[in-house]
Design a protein that fits this description.
By secondary structure, the protein is an all-beta fold. 0% of the residues lie in helices and 60% in strands. It has no helices and seven strands. The chain has strands at residues 4-8, 13-16, 22-34, 40-51, 57-62, 66-69, 75-76. The radius of gyration is 11 Å and the shape is globular. The N and C termini lie far apart (23 Å).
């Protein structure tokens, strides 16, 4: 809850859950799973984004990820 973290992906699958976390993912991620409430995630490059829960925001800088959104108010851009 309310964590602020930077994590190197190294081509791994990353899962983020909880409430009001701010996470920056560097490098290339295979998959980013975001659930919970009001998390803000920024990722350099990713193949797949799965967003569930409520009011999460995922921003990616490059790539053309496969995007799956469930829940309500989730934004992927």
């Amino acid at each position: 809850i309310n964590d602020n973290r930077t994590v190197a992906c190294n081509d791994n699958e990353i899962t983020i859950s909880g409430i009001s976390n701010t996470v920056t993912l560097t490098g290339h991620c295979a998959t980013v799973n975001v659930s919970g409430l009001q998390n803000v995630v920024t990722v350099d490059n990713v193949d797949t984004i799965e967003a569930s829960g409520l009011n999460n925001k995922v921003t990616y800088h490059s790539g053309s990820p496969k995007i799956s959104k469930n829940g309500s108010g989730n934004v992927v851009e």
